[in-house]
Specification:
This protein is mainly β. Among the domains are: about 100 residues, no CATH class; about 70 residues, Thrombin, subunit H (Beta Barrel), CATH 2.40.10; about 140 residues, no CATH class. The protein is about 0% helix and about 40% strand.
Length: about 575
């Protein structure tokens, strides 16, 4: 039985019936129809256009008691592609087919298309108009890969392909004199001539690395292992400023197809219908569309997130707290870039393989004091134009970064955080309290053997030396031992001025830093084990031997916690042993 329903749209519809309830129809997502997943409404047809239907059982009328047949089961399909007026029509046959000579889909990843103009002042909005009577497309060389990012600036636009960067004129074109000098002229072309920048550089597939300030634009080219700056003098490799091999090695670890798992069981969840309660869910790590796997078998997709609950798109079977329940997602590596306008720095965060593991403390679902262990691997590093070099490594892991009115912000999950704020402790990042530290190298006359005897600094009280380590020796021990080792000298921890103070018979002494004329000094006490051939070693000797030393300063936990602690300069006294 078939019938035609009059619907208040210009589209024509094909109506069919399914009467046998025993032959359960298979709906989208590959599972049978049920009342909790109505299909009607997804086709854009209001429920009240179907006589006899109800909201509880939208696509199927009520079933007669004791019967295996549906009374009526309407399914509606549009006869024209995208339901557009006079679009390509579907014809009827053994199966519906498109009345079109070449139905093949075309993907033009190296082309651009533009619509009509938008003018908020006059109320003109033609952004949804694409006139086929006008030349509204522009293509760039497909040999350089797909277009990853477009950046409009003044009256030009910069095009970032995977392996090329170009500039295209907007609302003007260029002609050239006999000497090759370009001259701009007005044109009816919206996008004019494409002018590539010199150099085989692109943005690979990391448009998120792009950031700009003034006339300088920063981005990475993962395929070539470089960080780039586009300025008025063209493209420059800023990764070669002391960090060439570092970026070459680390950008090679960026992967576009990482699969990561988020384990919510066993012992950490309870199930009610399609809702899974997992305790304090870190929603910044759970994404819509993640697949649900139970004991290694796929069972559905994540449909909704609500506090400590997640909802799957189909009914979940009975799940035991011993079952292995895992959410899986494709999470490619990212190279997130942002400009810190407060310090005039380009901040680059290379995020390699996102992982998030759940570690339950016991098998009780009611005890939710379980821990989430962040095992993300990332490096956040800063480029400073003032010194034309990479100045610092940072410990924060941002989702996005941006600047606004001389303030620098970063996004972590769904929260926005302001950096350099005086309203919180200076050692607080993303709500987590911690200490501040800086690592540097004493490398004067690196080819000369020396003994580092003391360490000093200018700044505020509250700094301590966590480590003071010399350079490594060569491999020692004979080859037959197969136990090659490096040796290096270390020192005992140098306590801060306050934590290193103690009183003996009414006199105050300092085992760490001591202050003299507002400058802090401390002796270095050797803490090394005996090396082959050494007679005197460890705390029996003062200072450490080496050509250079790696030093780590940090703030202590008792001197004005979270307050301002400046470190102006650091020095050391050495004894040369030429």
């Amino acid at each position: 039985m078939a019938a035609t329903l009059e619907i208040s749209y210009f589209n024509s519809f094909w109506i069919k019936t399914v009467n046998n309830a025993a032959a359960q129809p298979v709906w989208p997502m590959g599972y049978p129809y049920n009342e909790s997943n109505p299909i009607l409404g997804a086709n854009g047809v209001p429920l009240d256009d179907f006589p006899g239907t109800n909201a509880t059982n939208a696509a199927v009328n009520e079933i007669t008691a004791g019967s295996n047949d549906y009374e009526i089961n309407w399914f509606v399909e549009e006869s024209r592609i995208r339901g557009g007026y006079n679009n390509t029509q579907l014809d009827l046959g053994v199966k519906a087919y498109i009345v079109e000579d070449d139905p093949t889909q075309q993907v033009r990843s190296n082309s651009m298309i533009y619509s009509g103009i938008y003018n908020s002042r006059t109320g003109i909005n033609q952004t949804n108009q694409f006139s086929t009577g006008k030349d509204i497309t522009k293509s760039v060389d497909p040999a350089y890969g797909s277009i990853q990012k477009l950046f409009a600036e003044n009256t030009n636009m910069t095009i970032f392909q995977e392996s090329k960067v170009s500039s295209v004129l907007v609302d003007k074109d260029a002609i050239y004199t006999a000497e090759g000098t370009p001259m701009q002229t007005t044109s009816n072309l919206v996008l004019g001539q494409v002018q590539p920048y010199l150099g085989e550089y692109g943005i690979s597939k990391n448009p998120e690395s792009f950031s700009y300030y003034g006339f300088q634009k920063y981005f990475t080219d993962k395929d070539r292992g470089v960080v780039l700056r586009l300025s008025r003098d063209g493209i420059t490799e800023i990764s070669q400023y002391g960090m060439l091999d570092y970026f070459r090695d680390n950008l090679a670890n960026i992967n576009y197809s990482n699969v990561w798992n988020y384990a919510i069981g066993p012992g950490a969840f309870s199930v009610s219908s399609r809702v899974i309660e997992v305790g304090s869910t870190p929603t910044d790590r759970i994404l819509l569309g993640m697949s649900l796997n139970i004991n290694g078998s796929f069972f559905g997709y994540l449909q909704d997130i609500n506090s400590d609950q997640i909802t799957i798109d189909r009914d979940v079977p009975t799940v035991s707290i011993t079952d292995n329940v895992v959410l899986s997602s494709i999470a490619p590596s990212k190279v997130v870039g942002g400009y810190d306008i407060h310090n005039k720095n380009y901040v680059l965060s290379m995020q390699y393989s996102p992982e998030y593991a759940f570690e339950p403390q016991n098998s009780s679902a009611e005890d939710s004091q379980d821990s989430y262990v962040d095992t993300d691997k990332y490096d956040t590093i800063v480029f400073d134009e003032l010194i034309n070099g990479w100045s610092s490594f940072m410990s924060y892991y941002p989702t996005q970064m941006f600047s606004l009115k001389n303030n620098f912000y970063s996004i972590k999950g769904s929260d926005i955080w302001q950096h350099y704020s005086n309203s919180v402790n200076r050692t607080s990042f993303y709500g987590v309290e911690g200490g501040s530290n800086i690592t540097f190298i004493f490398n004067g006359d690196s080819s000369v053997n020396k003994v580092f005897q003391t360490v000093n600094y200018e700044g505020d009280s509250g700094w301590q030396v966590d480590s003071f380590i010399s350079d490594q020796t060569g491999k020692d021990l004979p080859p037959q031992n197969r136990n090659w080792q490096f040796f290096q000298d270390t020192v005992q921890t140098v306590k801060s001025y306050y934590e290193g103070s103690y009183t003996d018979q009414g006199i105050t002494y300092y085992s760490g830093f001591n202050r003299k004329e507002n400058k802090y000094y401390a002796n270095l006490v050797n803490n090394s084990s005996a090396q082959p051939g050494e007679v005197v070693f460890g705390n029996s000797m003062s200072g450490i031997k080496g050509r250079f030393a790696t030093v780590k300063f940090s703030t202590d936990t008792t001197t004005d916690p979270g307050g301002l602690k400046e470190l102006w300069s650091v020095g050391t006294k050495v004894n040369y042993t030429r």
